[in-house]
Amino acid sequence: MVRLNEVRRNEVAVEPPASFDAGLVFVGIIRTPWRSRLECPRQGRRDGPICRIELYEPWVAALDGIDAFKEIEVLYWLHESRRDLVRQSPSSDGAARGTFSLRSPVRPNPIGTAVVSLVARQGPILTVRGLDCVDGTPLIDLKPDRCLFTPLAPLQPGDFETG
Amino acid sequence: MVRLNEVRRNEVAVEPPASFDAGLVFVGIIRTPWRSRLECPRQGRRDGPICRIELYEPWVAALDGIDAFKEIEVLYWLHESRRDLVRQSPSSDGAARGTFSLRSPVRPNPIGTAVVSLVARQGPILTVRGLDCVDGTPLIDLKPDRCLFTPLAPLQPGDFETG
């Protein structure tokens, strides 16, 4: 079962920083069939249910051209997650691992990433498959999947650096 | 050439929101060979140069177990990017596309994502290949690559939903 707010045996919480270093704006909202975190899939699946990504103004114009991509990377804000655990026990069995070796929603910056299949676009709304988040999750960013995208900008010196 | 701060022909800037919706903490810093954005590769390559990811306290304990993964997803804050363009012209040729159909660093929430090869870990420092960002870029998050990671948490109802 996903965590609601508890700290489990052998988990370690730290004092959260007193201030933030940067700010995010929510550019849309994600609509899924899951009304609580206890129902969500642990990871999205490509044959999962249709979900809806609704963009807010003034960001709708930024969707122009997205229809060219079958797969899109989605970044979203896991707004119900605590942020102070550095060691976690997903199985609640006393075995704990570092947060950065887990894809748990509980992290210092609770950002989820998924690669989803784009089914359709209608105006400010994308329908997709492959998400795993609770209904009402705030949207942070959309990008073409890196494997399908070729940069349009002119070449730069670093493009050729190996080592 | 990457943008420094200009708005190019046919690009569209919007009024940025008056306030932020969520805050980020920088959990580390990324060291790369690239001293300016004009030198960076447009996308990371797996045979690219070694880069270093240095974690800050109190987050070092969160690295525990990361050595088990050959590939790690890295989220970083593109701190030199403007955030107000909804249409961009990467080639500066007058052809503009929506920001969400580009992987440009210029976006409402300038978060870069990369999947890198983990070469080694020594204490708070990871050495990796596959990054594309400028030296000094703030680190936001690390996760095991989704293709290599199997959730440890107990099954949830959404795991079985298709549609």
Radius of gyration of chain A: 18 Å
Largest beta sheet: strand ordering of chain A: 3-4-9-8-5-10
Chain pair with largest interface: A-B, 86 and 85 residues
Regions with little confidence, pLDDT below 50 for 5+ residues of chain A: none
Overall residue-averaged pLDDT value of chain A: 94
How many β-strands of chain A, per DSSP? 10
Q: How many helix segments of chain A?
A: 0
The N- and C-terminal alpha carbons of chain A lie at a distance of 44 Å
- Please report which band the strand proportion of chain A falls in: under 5%, 5-15%, 15-25%, 25-35%, 35-45% or over 45%: 25-35%
Q: Outline the biggest β-sheet of chain A.
A: 6 strands, antiparallel, barrel
Helix-strand sequence of chain A: EEEEEEEEEE
Query: In one word, what is the shape of chain A?
Result: globular
Helical residue percent of chain A? under 10%
Please identify the oligomeric state.
Answer: homodimer
Helix vs. strand class of chain A: mainly beta
Please give a structural write-up:
The structure is a homodimer of 163-residue chains. The first copy, chain A, has 163 residues and is mainly β. Chain A contains no helices and ten strands. The first copy, chain A, has strands spanning 12-13, 22-24, 28-31, 50-55, 71-77, 85-88, 97-98, 111-122, 125-129, 137-144. In chain A, the strands form two sheets. A six-stranded antiparallel β-barrel of chain A has the order 3-4-9-8-5-10. Chain A has a three-stranded antiparallel beta sheet with strand order 1-6-7, with no helix packed on it. In chain A, a hairpin with an 8-residue loop joins strand 6 (85-88) and strand 7 (97-98). The radius of gyration of chain A is 18 Å and the shape is globular. Chain A starts with 11 loop residues before the first strand and ends in a 19-residue tail after the last strand. At the A-B interface, strand 2, strand 5, strand 7, strand 8 and strand 10 of A face strand 2, strand 5, strand 7, strand 8 and strand 10 of B. Strand 2 (22-24) of chain A pairs antiparallel with strand 2 of chain B.
